[in-house]
C-alpha cells in the first residue's frame, strides 16, 4: 500500500524524541499552544504524533536507545532547536511559563527583526518563539 504524505506537513519539519511521547505531546499542546493533528498508537502506546501551529508541523516520537534515538535531556549538549513564529510572542511566553516550560530567556527584541524568547520542553528540547517586529 502506498503511503500518503502526512496531512498539513511541510516538506521539512522537526522530529523530536521523548521517553514518554504521550506526555511530551500533551505538554506541547498545553504549554506551547500547538494543535493536535494526528496520533498513532499501538497497544495504547503513542508511537508518533503530529502537532502544528499554522503551517508548521512537529513530529513527536518514541526515544529508543537501541536505535540511538535519545531525548534532548540525555544528550551532553543541545544539537538543534525548533523556531516557530507566533502572532503574539509575549502572550505565548506567559502561557508557556505558566504551564511549566523552562525559560531560557524572556521575550526581547533582537537585532534581526524578531521579538523572541527561548524555552525548553519537558525533555529538554530547545524552542524559540518569535514575532516579527514592525517598523
Automatic annotation (TrEMBL):
SUPFAM superfamilies noted in UniProt: Glyoxalase/Bleomycin resistance protein/Dihydroxybiphenyl dioxygenase (SSF54593)
Gene3D superfamilies linked: 3.30.720.110, 3.30.720.120
Annotated Pfam families: Glyoxalase
Alphabetical list of InterPro entries matching this protein: Glyas_Bleomycin-R_OHBP_Dase, Glyas_Fos-R_dOase_dom, VOC_core
Residue stretches making up the VOC domain: 9-132
Top-level taxon: Bacteria
Protein name: VOC domain-containing protein
Taxonomic classification: Bacteria, Bacillati, Actinomycetota, Actinomycetes, Kitasatosporales
